């Protein structure tokens, strides 16, 4: 009987030591801030709709069949106005060019607003 009780108590103690720190670490993490693009409804856009957003103050691009609103990034783009070369159009080739650091592949998702209509 003593062995059974000791086993149960040991199991409870281990569970507490494993579960509580995990719960605490999850609640200590700050909430992810959502960008303006993520707040918009994710939907499907035609190529004609994307083409309307072709200027510095309203810039959408297409990368691999996904639509991105990069308007807020245009002024920050390290390549200057090169981002506007394909505003309102497909930027896949330029996006995957050798000039981009791997960081850009992580940050682009923040600007995704939908899929390109097939």
From TrEMBL:
Residues 42-117 form the Cytochrome b5 heme-binding domain. Residues 1-25 form the signal peptide. It comes from Nicotiana attenuata. GO terms for molecular function: heme binding; metal ion binding. Gene3D superfamilies: Cytochrome b5-like heme/steroid binding domain (3.10.120.10). InterPro entries: Cyt_B5-like_heme/steroid-bd, Cyt_B5-like_heme/steroid_sf, Cyt_B5_heme-BS, Cytochrome_b5. Belongs to the cytochrome b5 family. This is Cytochrome b5-like protein. Pfam families: Cyt-b5. Keywords: Heme, Iron, Metal-binding, Signal. One of its GO terms (cellular component) is membrane.
